[in-house]
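Follow-up to my earlier ticket, as requested here are the two runs.
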Amino acid sequence: MKFVTVTIPGKAVTVGSRIGIADTSLSRLFGLLGKRSLQPGSGILIRPSSGVHTFGMTFSIDVVALDRDLRVLHLWRRLPPFRVTTIGARTHSVLELAPGQIDFCGIEPGDRLMFHD
């Protein structure tokens, strides 16, 4: 899996420096399944995706819904196991982060993210 760094240029904030890209059918299917936790600064970008679930997971995650321009549409803080996010017609990809990362980084709807190799 390819890993990137995710920033919010408008706020000079690094959201994560080890964000995996799940952009194949298989990597999207498995996502974070099998992981026991996520460390701050790590996560996974699932694209394309209009929503996610946490069935089979054993820990909570922060979830960020993004449009095609990587602008934040919606946030789910500390989504517990066995839950489902809403499906968004404008949502193009979903960023899953360690619990607490949304608040720690000050991520808000309308923020535009940038990905760096």
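Run two:
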Amino acid sequence: MIRRQLGVTLSGAIVWMVILALGGLFAAKLMPSYIEYFAVKKMLTAMEESGETKGTVRDIRNAFDRRNTIEDVKAIRGEDLEITKEAGEAVVTATWATKIPVAGNFSACLDFMITTAK
């Protein structure tokens, strides 16, 4: 009875290592943008829960900027927020785009949008 050998060939291992390295590079480049996205989402949720979205447009922008001094988000500021009224309540929307160079002339373009509308 002949037993087949089990295992990974050297070329197969190298291919998988290259794929994992490229995936890791891509994830490492995109991670800061997603961290900022979740920071902005957290700020808008906290503003809504504390009632800071009930003031004037200027008050809302100032409240966002105050929170942003702690979070240190570079992608968006209070003046970039879109603030509208719907059903008598202020709806705050933050939209921005980020272009991240990955390697050579290959870039990832990410579009983010967060709103307090329910």
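The only thing I checked on run two: Residues 27 and 60 are 33 Å apart (CA to CA). Let me know what else you need.
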